[in-house]
Give the backbone structure.
Amino acid sequence: MPKQKLDMTNMLGDTKTIQVLSALEGGLKTKQDLNQVLTQAGISAQQIDPRDLLPRVKNRPLDEEKVKALMQSIKDIGVLEDLIARPHLTDSGKYELLAGSHRREACIRLGILAPTKIVQVDDKLAAKIAGATNSHRNQLNALEEADMVLEVLALELETTEAEVESLLWQYSNKTIDVHSPEWRTIETITPTVTSVAISSFIRHYLPLRKLPQDILDAVRSGKLHYTKAQRLIRLKHSKFAEQRQALLQEAIDDNIPISDLSDRVEQVISTSTPSRSQKSEPPRRVITRRIKALSQRVGQVKNWDAASQKEVEKLLTKLEEKLQALSNSSEI
């Protein structure tokens, strides 16, 4: 369905608040600070008990170090940036927190009121405000951005997030009518909530929603970067559960470089009991894959001593001679 323009003049009670809608519709390309836009629109902060600010269901886990740093900062200079919330839909007298979960927690621990801007917005704008403010502060990881985009699109299309995912995969597979109202809405709305192109979003962000739960939790908590999660997804089969969990913990604790993690995943797969399809894999493909992995490892070596270089060159010469011999025999 086509996008409906929202009349924020009535929603927020001030004609200037159309600036807020413009900021949201302008998307992340404008890099506008929505808290600042709200101030310019005449929405002032109220002092609210932070315990009355209820986090959104999709709020990310708290970063303990960040909370402690904020507590010290608030002690020294106060809360520099207002929180943003809207009246809670089901809990009278409470508010749904749209931006400022770490500041809320810091205020709770310090036992002080939280300066909060209260906005009267519907679910669509609430999702956009939550996503845009966190994106502006670089607080969304790739999985959270995927969640946020799907939430906004589902609200715009008045459907489920699963159905939105299906539409995006249909586009990737070239099986969707690109002139349909649903796809036109996706094309219109997506750039307003993410700076990632739709094709890149589908290729790199959408698959993260199908990660095994242990990896999913690590990415959502910010402990694991999504690019490393993409490597570990190759171990999603239940037969790799033990090795995957061990590698996941090591990636978190020791911050394994992504190239090393890729090699470790490859080792787990190659040493597992091969399936029938793996047994019939052409030798050329197996050898090509191993040579490619060796090439990556060579690039990781920073310091070559003369003896090691000479030894490796000897092995490479033998490999080249063997490949040449195989090539010559195939030509006969």
